[in-house]
Amino acid sequence: MSTQDNTLTEVAVGAAVLAVAVGFFLYASGASDGAPAGGSYLLNASFRSAEGIAVGTEVRLAGVRVGTVTDMALDPASFRAETTFSLREDIVLPDDSAITIASEGLLGGSFVEIIPGGSPFNYAPGDTVTDTQSSVSLVTLLMRFVTGDGSE
C-alpha cells in the first residue's frame, strides 16, 4: 500500500469523524432547549433547603419540562435559598400552585416540580410562589430510620 493511499484513507476517516461530531453538536443544541420560540417569564420561590438543584435544573409540570432554574442565592436575612426560574410563556399557573424539589429516585437527580392549584387568579411574571416544599435529605431519613428518631 502506498503512502498516498494511506493519506487518502486518513483524510476520509477524519472527514467522517468530523461529520459525526458536527451532527452530534447540531442534535444536542436543538434538543437541549425545551422552550418554544414564543419565550418565557420568570417566577421566584424561597426554599428552606435547595439541596440537589442548581442553575439549569429542570422545572417540570405533570412530568413535562416547562422551564429551568435560572438563578439561586442565599438570603442573608432569612437564611433561605432564593431561586428564580423561567417558565414557558404558554404555561399559566394559578396563584395557589405549589413548588417542590423532587427526586427521580434513590440514585436519580433532583428537579423542581410544579403542583398546579385551582385558583381563578394566576401568577404574573416576577411574582413569588409562597407554597414551597424543600428537598428531603436521604441521609437524614436513613439516620432517623436507623436511630429510631421521630418514629413516634
Give an overview in words.
The protein is of the alpha/beta class. It folds into 2 domains: 32 residues; 104 residues, no CATH class. Helix content is 26%, strand content 33%. An 8-stranded mixed β-sheet has the order 7-1-4-3-2-6-5-8, with no helix packed on it. β3 and β4 form a beta hairpin. The longest helix has 29 residues. The radius of gyration is 23 Å and the shape is elongated. About 4% of the residues have low confidence.
Order of helices and strands: HEEEEEEEEH
Residue stretches low in confidence (pLDDT < 50, at least 5 long) are 32-37
Helix-residue proportion = 25-40%
Number of domains: 2
Strand content: 25-35%
* Mean pLDDT score: 82
Number of helices: 2
Query: Based on DSSP secondary structure assignment, what is the total number of beta strands?
Result: 8
Radius of gyration: 23 Å
Major beta-sheet overview:
8 strands, mixed
Shape: elongated
Structural class: alpha/beta
Distance between the termini: 80 Å
How is the largest sheet built, in terms of strand order? Answer: 7-1-4-3-2-6-5-8
Offer a concise description of the structure.
With 152 residues, this protein is an alpha/beta fold. It has helices at 3-31, 138-147; strands spanning 40-47, 58-61, 64-75, 80-88, 98-103, 110-115, 128-129, 131-133. The chain folds into two domains: 1-32; 40-143, no CATH class.
Which helices and strands occur, and which strands form pairs?
Blueprint: H1 3-31, E1 40-47, E2 58-61, E3 64-75, E4 80-88, E5 98-103, E6 110-115, E7 128-129, E8 131-133, H2 138-147
Parallel strand pairs: 1-7, 2-6, 5-8
Antiparallel strand pairs: 1-4, 2-3, 3-4, 5-6
